[in-house]
Specification:
The complex is a heterodimer of chains A (280) and B (276).
Chain A lengths: L9 H25 L2 H24 L14 H32 L5 H25 L7 H37 L5 H16 L2 H10 L13 H7 L3 H36 L8
Helix pairs in contact in A: 3-4, 4-5, 6-7, 6-9
Chain B lengths: L9 H22 L10 H16 L3 E6 L5 H20 L3 E5 L2 H17 L11 E3 L4 H15 L3 E7 L4 H10 L3 E6 L5 H7 L2 E4 L2 H10 L2 H31 L4 H7 L3 H10 L5
Parallel strand pairs in B: 1-2, 1-4, 2-3, 4-5, 5-6
Helix pairs in contact in B: 1-9, 2-3, 3-4, 3-8, 5-6, 8-9, 10-11
The chains are: A mainly alpha (280), B alpha/beta (276).
Chain lengths: 280, 276
């Protein structure tokens, strides 16, 4: 069974799907409004259950040698549908943003100058982006003005501003680490000591202190070594730092991941069966 | 290791079924009146304290679901924000919900409007308080940091999925002296939140938040089911480590726990006569 379209029927099918989706959406909106709250909820619960069932069934149904079952080809179209919803929501979000800043400018609210900057940037960026996309599809001329403006706006402005914001994190890490490592309690002291060992251990300074100054062995533990020999062989800061990262840090992170995974699964089950009443 | 289908390792499918069963069974137990215990989470007790402080200072509260795209995490974040908004509505404290995902923005508008309606204060709802800033990570980060600075927020709640921008939010909030409560499933961001925020909700505590705040039987039951599943995982991990130590990592029982085709190999070896 295939969900792919034959090339000769493609346009006919595309129009049929678009028209069908249009009728479905236009029909669903008045239906939702006409129905009493109970009926509306039942409809939403039913659609949610069927949508969830589709993905669950695709996972649990046996597959052939190509790792496919009868529902697998429909996974991609279903995910495309989710992208479509995302694109519609993006329009809604952009409308909300522009409306808010237009209001700021028209009503001359506090700091309305920032809103002017946002609106001008928004229009300029959108104009050159759309023009560039059309030019790439050879639907509009690719002029030097477009090339220079696009480069100026994206490569020389947007990317640089992104990089500037990202680089701020280095300074924030410094100030946050200073507060976290202040010795106020036993826990903070352990945190600071561990952090110091790891920080020094993973940079060349750690190897220099351990192997060159203190004379610890940089070689791996020999076969058949006793416990004391093993201990002596692994006292260098780089090895201790590696042990902290792989034997203490990684299991703790995995435990958190397990918890998050189980929590997410439980939440998904509640949403699928409409047992979750938070925002639904 | 990821599985595309249950057939890749039936054991993982059985585990998923077991977790689902535990969750549903305990939801049923809670619904029929079983008394379920939930331990104290200090970070969540601080929410009311932070809102009270904002009210006293007359400064806004910010709620940030991060760059979370719409899904299970976003629903959980919005459920928490809905609870916070209900508390805010009682004192008419100003609020801002800032998101980097347009779908979350659309749903947040409805959720927050509902929260004001359910609190009996629909007049306080202002659609402009819920803002979609940008879907570019650092444009969103600069937008949030700018708003926190300009409006000198008194409380900052960050619940959702965060990436490198987490520290920008938390440090900016710290600079303006806001009480900050963060909860995230992104464990790489947990150290940043621990360092910069007053309270941090870690890992699966994030999913326990709605149960803790609402004390709804369905959510409490689900939480107990999750805990049983966690104990099962801990038991399996311990058993796996012991068995791998005793029998070696190539034993079929170890493959059963974590390799594609391991279930079939195990069944064939122990019940079908010989290794395939």
């Amino acid at each position: 069974m295939t969900w792919q379209l034959n090339p000769q029927d493609q346009w006919l099918w595309i129009w049929a799907i678009v028209l069908g989706a249009f009728v479905l959406v236009l029909g669903l909106i008045p239906l939702l409004q006409v129905l009493p709250p109970r009926g509306r909820r039942a409809l939403v619960v039913g659609i949610t259950f069927l949508a969830g069932l589709f993905f669950a069934a695709e996972f649990f149904m046996p597959v052939n040698e190509e790792q496919k079952n009868m529902l697998t080809p429909a996974i991609q179209p279903a995910q495309n549908l989710l992208q479509l919803i995302g694109a519609l929501a993006l329009g809604l979000g952009t409308y909300g943003l522009v409306r808010l800043h237009l209001k700021n400018v028209v009503q001359k609210r506090t700091q309305w100058g920032y809103s002017v900057v946002l609106l001008v940037s928004f229009v300029t960026m959108a104009f050159f982006s759309i023009w560039n996309t059309l030019a790439e599809k050879e639907l509009a001329p690719k002029t030097p003005l477009l090339e220079n403006s696009f480069k100026l706006l994206f490569d020389f402005t947007l990317v640089q501003l992104d990089a500037a914001m990202f680089s701020l994190i280095a300074f924030y890490i410094f100030s946050a680490a200073y507060r976290a490592f202040r010795i106020r309690s036993i826990e903070a002291s352990i945190l600071m000591f561990t952090a110091m060992v790891v920080m020094i251990g993973v940079v060349p300074l750690g190897a220099y202190i351990s192997y060159d100054l203190m004379g610890f062995s940089a070689e791996p533990t020999p076969e058949g070594a006793s416990f004391v020999q093993m201990l002596v062989h692994n006292l260098g800061l780089p090895k201790v730092a590696n042990w902290i990262l792989t034997s203490l840090n990684a299991p703790a992170q995995r435990a958190i991941e397990f918890g998050v995974g189980i929590g997410g699964l439980a939440m998904a089950i509640r949403l699928w069966l409409s047992l979750e009443r938070g925002i639904t | 290791m990821t599985y595309q289908h249950a057939q890749d390792n039936w054991f993982s499918a059985i585990i998923i079924g077991f977790i689902a069963l535990m969750v549903l069974l305990n939801i049923f137990r809670a619904r029929v009146g079983a008394q379920l215990f939930i331990r104290r989470i200090p970070g969540l007790d601080a929410i009311d304290e932070a809102i009270g402080r904002s009210t006293e200072m007359g400064r806004p509260v910010t709620m940030i679901p991060g760059m979370t795209s719409f899904g299970v995490v976003a629903v959980q974040s919005l459920t928490i924000f809905k609870y916070i908004t209900k508390q805010i509505a009682r004192f008419a404290t100003p609020m801002r919900l800032l998101t980097g995902d347009a779908t979350v923005f659309a749903v947040a508008q409805e959720a927050i409007a509902d929260a004001y309606n359910e609190s009996g204060r629909p007049d306080l709802y202002d659609g402009d308080s819920i803002r979609f800033l940008s879907d570019r990570q650092f444009a969103f980060a600069s937008g949030v940091a700018g708003l926190i600075q300009r409006e000198r927020v008194a409380a900052n709640f960050m619940f959702g999925e965060f990436y490198a921008e987490s520290l920008i939010f938390a440090e900016t909030g710290n600079m303006v002296g806001a009480i900050q409560v963060a909860g995230t499933i992104s464990f790489t961001q947990v150290p940043f939140f621990v360092a910069a925020c007053d309270y941090t909700i870690i890992g699966d505590e994030f999913y326990a938040t709605s149960a803790y705040l609402s004390r709804e039987p369905v959510l409490l039951g689900s939480l107990v089911g999750q805990d049983i599943a966690k104990f099962t995982f801990a038991f399996l991990a311990l058993s796996g480590a012991t068995l791998a130590t005793v029998f070696g990592v190539d034993d079929s029982i170890i493959k059963l726990l974590g390799q594609p085709g391991g279930f079939d190999a195990f069944i064939q070896e122990y019940f079908g006569g010989g290794t395939p």
